[in-house]
# Entry
Amino acid sequence: MQRLTRFEAPGDLQVISMYMAIDPANRKTIAADVDSLLHEVRPLSKDPDIEHQVRMSLREDIERIEELVKNELPIERAAAIFACSGGGLFEVIELPRAVGTRVTVEATPWVRPLLTVLEEYERLLAVVVEREGAHLWELYLGQYRDAGRLRGPELRRFGAEGRRAHSPQHHDDKGDRLERQFFKDLAAALEHLSYDVLVFGGHEHELPHLLEVLPQPVSERTIGTFAIDPGTATPAQVRERAEEILEEHERERERGLAQEVEESVAAGGRAALGLESCLWAASVQAVQTLLVTEDATAPGVVCEEGHWLAAGGDRCPVCGRETRATEDVIEDLVEKVSESGGSVRHIRIEDTVLDKQLTGALLRFPLPPDPREEGS
# Structure
């Protein structure tokens, strides 16, 4: 992300930013979909009014994307591709959920849809604690990596020499003090690491002592613990236990957001429920957080000037221009909310108010009257 957000094409070169949804059950359509997107770019690569080096860079980008698709993308749901051959840029990013299919050609990568997807997912740090230190594992967007170890040298040294040098009672007392000190040092170190949520694993009788010394910023991001023997635990076992806790945390978070919207609407608060209300809220840039049922789609209309989104209507009631029909107005809704600085959350759980309503939103301010309503 840092590479993309900092990249700016040199001179007059352009960046192709392509987003494409992939149907795992019908991967044969990928080539046709990409060819359709590239059809929008090919005229630029042949335009004599555009500098030669710009045209050549675009042609090379097109060829490289076509070659990538020809060799089959190892992707299940969606992908983002950023290309600028003349500037040395070619990035393919697998996305965890479907996105709207689109392409842009600009001086910088168009990363807003990518950021909208990424902000929905939390980076988890799993900390497996033992008396000799702690092993860190990072889980994000389905990827899992060893994030290294934090050592407790005093604990290790005492473990090797303490039994010989001290009585059993002295050993236990000092061991307890060193354990508490290590837990405090570990907690302090965790304040400076990058993650969204945290889980701890280790011996069941030790974990409560660690939780007692966590500073508030760390404690607030701790979502659970799991009992495991650090000496015999495998990476696969740690990942499985951490994923179970993360999945339950995400379900509860989604359920809480849906309930907050439902209760706020019932109390006449700053919230909207249902597609039509959310479309109007996005039209006036009132949406703070948009909730969308996973994989929900719906036809609708949009104002080309960006004034209005709706389920239907021939003309925009704000500017009077003719509207454009769209097969999926929810895709336009997500983009509109993202562009106005709001956040988007796709709800994957069932048995919430969104099962029938499809969308809900927490608002920045109360909605003004819909211009289609009589007297507004």
The longest strand covers residues 143-151. The radius of gyration is 26 Å.
